[in-house]
Amino acid sequence: MGAHTSASNRPHLSLLVRGGVAPVDAAGLNVGVGAGAAAESEPDAATVHPPLVSAEVRRASGRLPLAVTLGAPLLFRHGDRAVLARTVLPTSGLLELHAEVHALSGTVSAASDLPHTTPGSWTPHVTLARRLKLTDLDRALSALELEPIEAQATELRLWDARVGTAHQLA
């Protein structure tokens, strides 16, 4: 069921998802969840939206590592498919990091932020499977341990959807 195993598919918690960011088609800031991985290349300022890689946003990583708890499974359904995720229990520290990243990321393209990633409407989650056929849902759920999972948010990354790479910010 998990055919996509590249580094870009590491467990993460999206803090901000912004479409229409010039010159990037879409950009997202996320925190890496888990044991951490090898550092990826530094972002190229010509490739990513400057407010998203500013020194202020990088300083927000001073809140890391941050303990997170993955809770119950969650489905985002669309037609005959769904995104299967685990909820992330919001803590004051996590909500403060989320709000700080949004505040520091600039307002120029903020109107294109996906609503479920904005402060006050955020649904914190870690995606387990995308485009999961509903007919495979029972099999996917039976593969999950349903007990809460204690993890660490350890790094701040920027996902550049235009080129399909994640850049470690801090």
Task: Outline the fold blueprint.
Blueprint: E1 12-19, E2 26-33, H1 55-59, E3 66-78, E4 81-88, H2 92-104, E5 125-133, H3 137-142, E6 149-160, E7 165-168
Antiparallel strand pairs: 1-2, 2-6, 3-4, 3-6, 4-5, 6-7
CATH architecture: Alpha-Beta Complex
CATH topology: Cyclic Phosphodiesterase, Chain: A
The chain-level mean pLDDT equals 76
Unreliable runs: 22-27, 34-47
Number of domains: 1
**What is the gyration radius calculated from CA atoms?**
16 Å
Largest β-sheet summary: 7 strands, antiparallel
According to CATH, what is the class? Alpha Beta
The SSE string, one letter per element, is EEHEEHEHEE
**Helical content, roughly?**
10-25%
Structural class: mainly beta
Span between termini: 31 Å
**SS elements, strand count:** 7
Strand residue percentage: 35-45%
Compact summary:
It contains three helices and seven strands. The protein has 170 residues and is mainly β.
Overview of the structural elements:
This protein has one domain: Alpha-Beta Complex (Cyclic Phosphodiesterase, Chain: A). The chain is mainly beta and 170 residues long. The protein is globular, with a radius of gyration of 16 Å. It has helices at 55-59, 92-104, 137-142, and strands spanning 12-19, 26-33, 66-78, 81-88, 125-133, 149-160, 165-168. A hairpin with a 2-residue loop joins β3 (66-78) and β4 (81-88). The longest helix is centred in the middle third of the chain and has 13 residues, at 92-104.
